[in-house]
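Sequence, please.
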């Protein structure tokens, strides 16, 4: 019986030992957790997010990859400020040093009447910069060069030489320009002399651009200088119309056209906004003159700078003529000079009037008949006609008459200059008038003829212009309207989608045919101001979708530029998930929402014919 207390005592000792062991283990783990938490807090507070902390008993292990050796020592020091440094085990690595990246090479060329300015960084040695400066000066016709180029001894990046060559070629074409050259992109900003020259330059640059090079072109065309500043409004049996129209501002143009419409002009009327107006009150004077013609019901008013010539129709009563001329004289600003004439009523024309005629056939042949003053005028008219119509297309059959009225040579030559703007038609020159009649393929031919005759004949002289514009003869009219081009682009996308890698802006190889089809559509269009819009579904973050759609729209723009499309007026915009066209809750809806669209800048985005992205 004495052995039982001994057994109980032994069991108690064993239980106490086990309990002590458990308590000690728990205490060690508690210390480990607190130590790890304290070290982690200090590391994060120091901005060290790349290190991890783990405990092994009373020892602490740091692991991770430090960006450099200094950051590795800093992490150890921070941990050592919490626990004894002897308890820290260093498992940190240091990121391998990256090779230095090459600089971004670029050159900016400024060219104006004073010469060239070159600034930028070229790959190579100093001799490379000198050679490029010499080439740029030669491309600019020997213009003086201000060389601020620097060099870095690195290999040329891919595409660099092609970009330089294209930039120099562009510089040669553009006497007032800024050309910014990089290996993958050339930006051109320039000023042209006219809208027609602007179109030619854009076409030449697009043709010259090497494959794969992104070319951004912005060429502005200043308002033309109109000399003389001309306007001609006619009201006769054919109706009311502008034979020529000029305005100094858009607002003045709107006022003048509104006055013409109020007087009975119908259809589209062309009015050129240009420089050279004799007074800021031009629109006010024109409105008054058109109002006078409308009140008389028949007549012609011609402005040539500040000279105003009013010819009232023969059927206008004398009292009405006197009243309206008096009102117009009062309404015209002081700078204008008015010559008003009431056309006499028709009387029999004397036999054998002095006249000169030119007949331009549809094939281009010109027959010159009638009377000329002398051999000098005959030779001048013949040479002028051959220069304008072709040396083999002119037949001269005019006779000489030294008793012709004064100013006959000016009337003949200005009439031939006007006739050259027609596809076919006729010219009649008499003492009291010059008449040009026919059909043209130039939309502004009637206005230009009126300007030529008004300038050459002088104030107070009468002339008639009966010219019809035929769209079939206009090579520019054969181009589709901008709205039609956008419809064709979106129709192409509706049948052949542009595919992108998931979550990427990289165009899939299978979409090359679609990009090619879009490029073909654009090459048959006039220059456009176009928006390439990228859209996504609602999966992912809103900011991420906006960035992805922008990158995809830019990828399409780059791909079109690589196909030699003139993209100077194009803008890439990403709308992300903001403009859905289907339900994002279904796969089919999300597929429809992932798309690329084309739209004219300033017009609403198309509602149909979309391409999925």
């Amino acid at each position: 019986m004495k052995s039982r207390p001994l057994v109980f005592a032994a069991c108690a000792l064993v239980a106490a030992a086990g309990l002590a062991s458990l308590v000690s283990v728990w205490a060690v783990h508690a210390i480990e957790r607190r130590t790890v938490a304290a070290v982690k807090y200090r590391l994060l507070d120091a901005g060290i997010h790349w290190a991890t902390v783990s405990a092994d008993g009373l020892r602490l292990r740091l692991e991770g990859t430090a960006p450099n050796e200094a950051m590795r020592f800093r992490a150890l020091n921070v941990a050592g400020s919490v626990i004894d440094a002897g308890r820290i085990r260093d498992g940190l690595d240091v990121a391998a040093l990256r090779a230095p990246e090459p600089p971004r090479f670029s050159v900016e060329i400024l060219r104006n009447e004073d010469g060239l300015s070159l600034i930028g960084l070229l790959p190579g040695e100093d001799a490379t910069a000198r050679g490029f400066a010499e080439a740029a000066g030669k491309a600019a016709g020997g213009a003086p060069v201000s060389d601020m180029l620097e060099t870095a001894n690195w290999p040329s990046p891919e595409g660099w030489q092609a970009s330089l060559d294209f930039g120099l070629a562009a510089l040669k074409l553009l006497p007032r320009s800024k050309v910014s050259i990089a290996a993958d992109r050339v930006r051109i900003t320039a000023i042209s002399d006219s809208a027609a020259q602007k179109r030619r330059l854009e076409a030449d640059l697009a043709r010259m651009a090497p494959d794969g090079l992104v070319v951004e072109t912005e060429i502005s065309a200043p308002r033309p200088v109109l000399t003389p500043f001309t306007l001609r409004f006619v009201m006769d049996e054919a109706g009311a119309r502008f034979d020529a129209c000029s305005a100094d501002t858009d607002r003045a143009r709107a006022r003048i056209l509104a006055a013409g419409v109020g007087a009975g002009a119908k259809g589209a009327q062309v009015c050129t906004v240009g420089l050279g107006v004799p007074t800021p009150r031009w629109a006010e004077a024109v409105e008054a003159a058109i109002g006078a013609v409308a009140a008389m019901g028949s007549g012609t008013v011609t402005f040539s700078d500040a000279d105003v010539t009013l010819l009232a129709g023969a059927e206008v009563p004398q009292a009405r003529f006197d009243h309206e001329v008096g009102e117009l004289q009062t309404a015209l600003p002081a700078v204008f000079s008015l010559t008003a004439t009431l056309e006499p009523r028709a009387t029999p024309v004397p036999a054998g009037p002095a006249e000169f005629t030119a007949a331009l056939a549809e094939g281009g042949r010109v027959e010159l008949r009638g009377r000329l003053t002398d051999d000098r005028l005959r030779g001048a008219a013949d040479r002028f006609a051959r220069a304008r119509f072709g040396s083999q297309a002119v037949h001269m059959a005019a006779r000489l008459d030294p008793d012709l009225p004064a100013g006959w040579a000016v009337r003949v030559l200005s009439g031939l200059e006007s006739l050259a703007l027609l596809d076919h038609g006729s010219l009649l020159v008499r003492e009291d008038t010059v008449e040009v009649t026919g059909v043209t393929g130039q939309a502004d031919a009637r206005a230009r003829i009126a300007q030529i005759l008004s300038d050459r004949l002088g104030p107070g002289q009468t002339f008639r212009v009966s010219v019809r514009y035929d769209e079939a003869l206009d090579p520019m009219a054969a181009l589709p309207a901008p709205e039609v081009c956008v419809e064709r682009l979106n129709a192409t996308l509706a049948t052949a989608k542009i595919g992108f890698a998931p979550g990427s802006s990289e165009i899939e190889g299978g979409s090359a045919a679609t990009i090619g089809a879009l490029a073909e559509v654009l090459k048959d269009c006039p220059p456009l101001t176009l928006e390439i819009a990228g859209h996504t579904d609602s999966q992912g973050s809103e900011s991420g979708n906006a960035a992805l759609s922008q990158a995809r729209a830019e990828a399409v723009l780059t791909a079109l530029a690589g196909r030699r499309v003139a993209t100077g007026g194009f803008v890439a915009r990403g709308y992300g998930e903001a403009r859905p066209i289907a339900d994002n809750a279904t796969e089919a809806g999300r597929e429809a929402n992932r798309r690329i669209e084309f739209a004219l800048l300033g017009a609403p985005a198309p509602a149909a014919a979309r391409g999925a992205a």
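The CA atoms of residues 67 and 98 lie 11 Å apart.
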